[in-house]
Structures are given as C-alpha cells and as structure tokens.
Amino acid sequence: MAQETQVTIKPPKFGYTTFTIVGTAPLVINAFPAKAREQMRAKHEAGTQAKKGRAKEAKDFEALYESAKHLSRDGWCGIPAAAFRNAMISACRIVGFKMTIAKMSVFIEADGFDAVDGTGLVKITQGEPKYVEHPVRNATGVVDIRPRPMWHEGWEAEVKIRWDEDQFSVTDVTNLLLRAGQQVGICEGRPDSKMSAGMGWGLFTIKQEGKANGKR
To answer: What's the pTM?
Structure first.
C-alpha cells in the first residue's frame, strides 16, 4: 500500500503590486562606464608593463556624463532595480525585521535591462537628466571632478514589487518602501550611503499606492 507523505513545507505564495513613486530630493546616478571597464581590463592584461610610457589621457566630461547613465536596450534611462531592493532590505533594520529573511522575501521586477552590462532597471517615467559636476575624493585621497546625471525632485518611476506573503502583507510592503524612500534612499548621495552620511539625495515618497498585478 502506498504510504501517505506528510507535507510540512508549503509552496511559495507571492504578492505582486506596482507603486508609483515621486522623488522628494534630487536623484543622481553613476553607472560604471564601459570605457573605464575596458581600461581596467587592459591594465590588468598589461601587468607590470601597464604604466611604462603611458601618457595620461585627457578627460572627455560629456562622454563621462553620458556613460554614467543606465540606458536600457530600448534607450530609456533607468534606476538599478537592486537599488530599491537593497533600500527595502536595509530599512528592515529600523523596524527590527531580520535582513537575512528579507533578502529572500522581497524582489523588484525589472522593466528592462542595461544595454552594457545587463543590470535590471526600473524605468524613470517622469523627469529629464541634467549635467552636473561634483568634487569627489577617490580611494587614494585625491580630489577629482565627477560629471553625473541628476534628476531634480519630482522625478517619477513605477516600482513593481514581488514579495513572500508568508512574510509580508501588502501594508508591510507599502510601509517598507515608504521607509526606504524617506530614510534610506537610493543611488548616489543617499542618506544610507556606506561611504558617508550622504547628500540627502535619492529620497522619494509613494505617489500612488499599490496596483495589484495579480498572482503568477
């Protein structure tokens, strides 16, 4: 006779919702340029020959500005989807929820992918980037000028979130995203930056609460 099997592990049950967010502070993005990646690769391949007789190349600030954008394969500007996920996970520290569990419980659905490195992107639906320059201090301590794209406050995006319903309710997800937007921030100069206290950039609030995408 066939033996009965006792099931103790339930299959995952996910909720899907889209939030419209609006920036309450400027958004600054700094993608790692493809040219810099190529130069780094060439330097590693050259080994000890890398610095011999090499002249310092003049900076093309406009090209650096363009390469700092995250452009999708369809040509629109986006924000790394991981920026929102990381911000929500980081916000769990404020409310006492285990970050290790949150890492397996909340996910951001990408609208598209970066044309250079395949990074998942959330499309910026409102606002245009402006050329800005900021002084920054490199890891060596040398001060450098960095051109980057900035979206003024009022920028918008639609964030599609998938979450484990055994861990979070839709209200939990809403409040976690709100805390991420008001206390953690995303991208360059965010309050939760690992390198500094930030510039107060990358903050946002929820303009329109979740529109259910249905179960998948």
So the answer is: 0.85
